[in-house]
C-alpha cells in the first residue's frame, strides 16, 4: 500500500499474535514498521508506540516526534538514558480502566470474604465458616486518584465499601474523603485496605515501607490491614513487606507488581498463605484499543490540536 502519512514504528513487548491482529486494521495509509525487524531502516518513523522499548530504538529511529506508551505507566520510557525531550503520550482507555477496577474490586472482596483462608481450608478439606465482616465497616484507602484510582473508588463505593483517597494534589470528589501529602498519616490511620495505584516516580519509589505499614488502622474488622498493589513494584520495599506479612503488621496482600518481574521462582512471596499474586495482569492493554487511541492522538497532532494524556516530565507521570 502506498503511504503518504508519516510512518510509525511499533516496539511493544506484548504477544506478537495480538499485535499482528490489531495492526491488520489500524493506522490506515501509514507505513508501519516493527522494531523487532532488525534490518528495517527506521529513520523515516515519526511516531513510536512502545512498551519496554529496545535500548537502541531511539538511535535507530532518530527522527521521532512523539512517543506513545503502550501502557498507562511511563516509567519504562522515562528511564531510557539520554531520552530526547519528545512529548510522551500515555495510554488511557475505558478498556484499561475497567479491567483495573475489576481487579481492584475483586481483590478487596477477596480479602473481605476471606478467600485466602477458604482456599487454605479447601486444601485441608476443612468445612468451617469464618466471620463475615461487612463492606460498610471496611475503609479502603486508595493511594493515587488518577484515571484508575478514581474509577476503582467509584466501583468500590458501589460495592458498599467506605472509600478514601490520597493524591499529590488536593481533590474534591463526591462521597470520598480525600487527602494530599500533608494528610498522609491521617489517611493511613483510617485505612483497613490500602490500594496502591501510583505511578513509579522518584517521589513514589519505596513509599510502601515498614514505617507506612505501621501507620495503617489496627483493630479493624479484617483482623489487620491489607495491602493491595497494582501500581509499580518499585514503590514497595519488599523486605519490609515480607516482614510485615510475617509479623502481623499486615494480615494479607494482593500483589500484581514486583520490584523484579517476572517474580523469581525462588521468591519467598510465592509461599505466603495470606497473599494473592497475579503476574502484572491487573489490567492488560488491549492492543486494538491502544492503536485506536494512537490514531486519535496522531490525528490531533497533525491537525495542530493539543494531544491528550501527555506526560508531565517534571513530575514523572
Ligand atoms: P494517573 O496519572 O491518571 O494518576 C496517577 C495518580 O497518582 C494521580 O492521582 C497523582 O496525583 C498520584 N500521584 C502521583 N505521584 C504522587 C505522589 N508523589 N504523591 C501522591 N500522589 C501521587 O495514572 P493512572 O491512574 O492512569 O495509572 C496509575 C498507575 O497504575 C500507572 O502509572 C501504572 O504504574 C499503573 N498501572 C498498572 C497496571 C497493571 O496492570 N498493574 C495497568 C495500568 C497502570 P495527582 O492527581 O495529584 O496528579
Ligand atoms: C500499564 C501497565 O502501565 O500495564 O499500563 O502496567
Beta content = 15-25%
Structural class determined from secondary elements: alpha/beta
Bound molecules: NADPH dihydro-nicotinamide-adenine-dinucleotide phosphate, oxalic acid
Q: How far apart are the termini?
A: 37 Å
Structure write-up:
The protein has 317 residues and is α/β, with parallel strands linked by helices. It has 10 helices and 12 strands. Helix 4 crosses helix 6. It binds NADPH dihydro-nicotinamide-adenine-dinucleotide phosphate and oxalic acid. NADPH dihydro-nicotinamide-adenine-dinucleotide phosphate binds next to helix 4 and helix 6. Residues 71-73, 96, 100, 144-149, 167-169, 197-201, 203-204, 230-232, 256-257, 280, 282-283, 317 line the site of NADPH dihydro-nicotinamide-adenine-dinucleotide phosphate.
Concise account of the structure shown:
The protein is α/β, with parallel strands linked by helices and 317 residues long. It starts with a strand and ends in a 15-residue tail after the last helix. The mean pLDDT is 97.
